[in-house]
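During the reporting period the student researcher (J.K.) took over the structure-prediction task from the postdoctoral fellow and processed the backlog of single-chain submissions. One of the processed entries is reproduced below for the supervisory committee.
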Amino acid sequence: AVVSTQSTGDRTKHRPIQHMEFMTDAKARQRYWARNFVGFPVFIEKKPNISHSVLAAMENHNMVDWVITQNVDRLHQKAGSTKVTELHGTTNIVTCQRCNYVTDRDSFQGYIQSYNSEFVAEIINVTPDADAEIDKELIRSFNTPLCPDCGSDLLKPQVVFFGANVGSEKVEFCYEKVRAADRILVAGSSLHVMSGYRFILDSKKRNKKIAILNIGTTRADHITDTKITARCGEFFEQFRDNNLLES
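J.K. obtained the following structure tokens:
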């Protein structure tokens, strides 16, 4: 089975930054990194939940062939899953869009701090991609970090922002994994975004068995073979207990 997951935690109305906005607007980049700088310490401490843990256990028991996730937090890997494709990339890597400089996000946090030694902001809320809601007035005093190699401020996490496309090689790899599966489980996703929905459409054309686990309606409700209306955590906990899985 291939498990395609978007969010195995709580649902959110958060709307991330747009790709073109980030690439063309210096103030948008300032806002993004100010909020991400404040939210990252909270984000990095997040632990895998029961859904991540059970999926990892299912992999160990040869019940899951591959996980395709739209999350960018690497919680599947933290839980022990090794067969994972991060469809929308990861926040754990930062690259320069001008010269291809690459660094890990942990190290980059200290680099941002060197530009903003006195920047302190109270966190109102932190989203699943480390975007912290903070006082808008404080953002004006934030210094956007510059690439240590070329001096550009076009430093970006290795994440596919809204409005950008997933790389063709990664898409084809995901198609291969989905087509090799005997059945598909969609867990915690509305499939609103085409980047994930296209794999379900392709599976339907190939007469794959499809099951959807979600607490609300999804874009593929009309083509699924099984629809389970439940929270992922509650379902996977019961599944673990019924199947005597260790997680």
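The committee noted the following: The longest strand covers residues 89-96.
J.K. will present the remaining backlog at the next meeting.
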